[in-house]
Write a structure and sequence with these properties.
The chain has 419 residues and is an alpha+beta fold. It has three domains: 175 residues, Elongation Factor Tu (Ef-tu), domain 3 (Beta Barrel), CATH 2.40.30; 66 residues, RNA polymerase II/Efflux pump adaptor protein, barrel-sandwich hybrid domain (OB fold (Dihydrolipoamide Acetyltransferase, E2P)), CATH 2.40.50.100; 118 residues, Helix Hairpins, CATH 1.10.287. A six-stranded antiparallel barrel has the order 3-12-15-14-13-16. A four-stranded antiparallel sheet has the order 4-11-9-6, with no helix packed on it. The protein starts with 6 loop residues before the first helix and ends with a strand.
Length: 419
């Protein structure tokens, strides 16, 4: 027989059920809240695969880096000064030459004919000058002989006039005879003066006429010297002691005036020509210290001697004068690396340059925490930079260790674990 439960028992049972339901929902809700607040597990990274750096304080050397080559300070292109045909090539690239070494021989029949014509004209002008000198000297001698005859006649007439004057005074001669002899002497005296003036004028006239013929001789001599010089130019000489770098013509080739024939350089005087990225050139200046790395030959110091006025293809050419002695094996066109020292910053906070981020910018880096087992993302403001280091303005302190390698794959997380 069933016993009917009281209302109190039923009510207690309902209350317990309600409490159980409330407790169940509370547990589920609490678990949900806790789970929602939990962060996902940070991704793991192998420590051996990342590059780390430590923030330091002290002197930081700002520098820029570029690649380039060694080039001769003095390079001379030998050009054709006359038209001609290449007959012989006496040298090849790499040959050592002296200043008067003949590199190439050319031919030009027209130039040889012009030189012969100029020589003939010069010989004719010199002969004509010699002939004029003989003729003018003969004329001058005739004038001197005539002047001498007039002086002799004047001397006799003067003596006769003086004799007739003495006789006239002593009443031994007539007045008419005295006057006639005196008139003759006076006339001859005037002729003597005229002949002397003619001699002076004749001497000046001879000089002027000789000068004309001498000028013709000089003109033809200058022309002949020019033709001889042009003829000699058919033998092309180095004009500079050094090494032949290039011979730009072939036997049988016809070349015109101004054509490049060969290039000679002095290998004992080299400079470095390096190219700096356009974005790193704003602080370049003349005289800045440079280290030229000649790979396995060592490092040579130098200084900036020339900066190109404008960049080409994103880089700016910079010429570096080498102050130190060149090592054995240094040669033109050898590849080198150049590091230009911009300035020395004293007592600054700096770290090795990270893979990402430019100077005067704000970036994020992963800083080691938990004894190096994890790294968290921090915001860092960068200052001035060099090839290897960058100045830290905000975000890091001395001794902090950060990851410098590329971490762009972790842009979506703020913490990583290091294994």
């Amino acid at each position: 027989m069933d016993i009917q439960r009281s209302e109190k028992v039923k009510r207690n049972k309902r209350i317990r059920r309600i409490l159980y339901l409330i407790l169940t929902f509370a547990v589920i809700g609490g678990a949900t809240v806790v789970l929602s607040k939990l962060q996902p597990a940070p991704p793991s990274v192998e420590s051996a695969t990342v590059v780390s750096g430590e923030v330091k304080r002290g002197q930081m050397i700002r520098n820029v880096h570029g690649m380039g080559t060694l080039v001769p300070e003095e390079i001379r292109w030998i050009t054709a000064t006359v038209n001609g045909r290449i007959e012989k090539r006496h040298v090849k690239p790499g040959d050592a030459v002296k200043e008067d070494t003949v590199l190439i021989e050319m031919s030009n029949p027209e130039l040889e004919r012009d030189a012969l014509d100029a020589q003939t004209q010069l010989v004719a002008a010199e002969a004509e000058l010699a002939n004029q000198r003989v003729q003018l000297r003969s004329q001058h001698l005739n004038q001197k002989a005539q002047a001498a005859a007039v002086r002799a006649d004047y001397t006799r007439a003067k003596i006769m006039s003086e004799t007739d004057a003495a006789l006239f005074i002593e009443h031994l001669g007539s007045e008419r005879t005295y006057k006639l002899s005196k008139s003759t002497a006076d006339e001859l005296a005037e002729r003597v003066q005229i002949e002397e003036e003619r001699l002076e004028i004749g001497a000046d006239s001879i000089k002027a006429q000789i000068a004309v013929y001498e000028a013709r001789v000089r003109q033809f001599k200058a022309l002949y010297d020019l033709r001889r010089q042009q003829l000699d130019s058919l033998k092309v000489r180095a004009g500079l002691g050094g090494v032949v770098q290039d011979v730009a013509v072939q036997i049988g080739q016809q070349v015109a005036i101004g054509a490049n024939l060969a290039r000679v350089a002095d290998p004992s005087k080299l400079k470095a020509e390096i190219r700096i990225a356009e974005t790193q050139t704003k602080d370049l200046a003349f005289g800045q210290r440079v280290e030229i790395d000649m790979r396995n030959l060592g490092i040579v110091e130098g200084h900036v001697m020339r900066i190109a006025p404008a960049p080409t293809q994103g880089t700016l050419p910079v010429d570096v004068a080498l102050d130190g002695e060149l090592p054995k094996g240094a040669r033109p066109d050898m590849s080198v690396d150049g590091t230009i020292e911009i300035e020395r910053l004293k007592d600054v906070l700096y770290v090795q340059r990270p893979a990402q981020g430019q100077e005067q910018s704000v970036i994020t880096l992963f800083k080691y925490v938990e004894g190096g087992r994890e790294a968290v993302r921090v915001q860092v403001r960068l200052g001035r930079s060099s090839v290897t280091d960058v100045e830290i303005l905000e975000g890091l302190n001395v001794g902090a260790r950060v990851i410098l390698s590329d971490t762009s794959q972790f842009d979506s997380v703020n913490r990583i674990r290091l294994n």
